[in-house]
Amino acid sequence: MADSDGKMRKLLLGLLLxxxxxLSLLVxxxxxxxxxxxxxxxxxxxxxMYAGRAGKAAGFIAFAEELLPGTDVVPTFTLxxxxxxxxxxxxxxxxx
Length: 96
What we know:
Layout: H1 2-22, H2 31-49, H3 52-67, H4 76-90
Helix pairs in contact: 1-4, 2-3, 3-4
């Protein structure tokens, strides 16, 4: 049960952080400046939420996604959650 609680907590936090990343769309003209501040924070938070090589790669992707124009709508944290808990397990061999 504790694992399920942590999993849901991480999903909710990811949804919140994706929402924060999209807030810059609401401030015309100031959005790009907000993205310059948010991009390194988002990258760092991603590496803290997800360990290992996948977390580092996701941190870089989150950083780049926040800096690139027109990509604020991509839910990077939520996509990483889906990758971590579903997609990556499709490629992991189950022990015999």
